[in-house]
Amino acid sequence: MGDEESKRENDADRRRRSRECKMFQGPESEMKKRKEKEVMITLKPEEEVKKYKVMVTLDPDTAHPGLLLSEGGRRVIRADGPQPLPDTPKRFTAYDLCVLGSEGFTSGRHYWEVQLLQEGMGWTAGVAAESVERKRGITWSPEGGVWAVEREWLDGQYLALTSPLTPREEPLKLGVYLDYEGGRLSLYNADSMELLYTFSRVHFTHRLFPIFCLWCAELRLV
After folding, report:
1. What are all long-range contacts of 25-31, with beta carbons under 8 Å and residues at least 24 apart?
2. Cβ(59)–Cβ(100) under 8 Å?
3. Where is this region: Disordered (predicted)?
């Protein structure tokens, strides 16, 4: 009888220790998973966006008459004066010297790069909705259908529309990353992958096109 009582006590003790062990291992295991996830997030490089790189060409039918496009639509420079181009509904004709990319996006992730061939000049790059104003001047805001970064020509200030930016060094190559479903547009110094600005939590509903505007500059898509 004493042996049976001893056995029951030992079994009960083993069950208790087993429960305690599971209770201890549960949070530790969860903590381990959380730490592994945090490490994965921490170690994920911004270079990751480059795997979504796409070939962007410029749409001559949208180009402002004050811009000159290369034959392949991969380079744009400001013209000496307005060109005699047809005033179509797609063309920018106000004081904003802009051009759109040929292909618009309604889903997916996309990344492209813009080489700035003249330092210290004014430019704008980002995305614009298909509905962006083309005849009366662009409203430079998400409400106007534009998400972009610009370098002002006169004072050299960098802006994400109305938010001042202070990049560590002047970007000579700009990286643009669009995550349509994720509601995110990020702009980088493509040489260092320094993040310049992110428009986040955006509910994109329009077809979005790459947009490029020049004041006194030359851009090349790379």
Report:
1. none
2. yes
3. 1-36
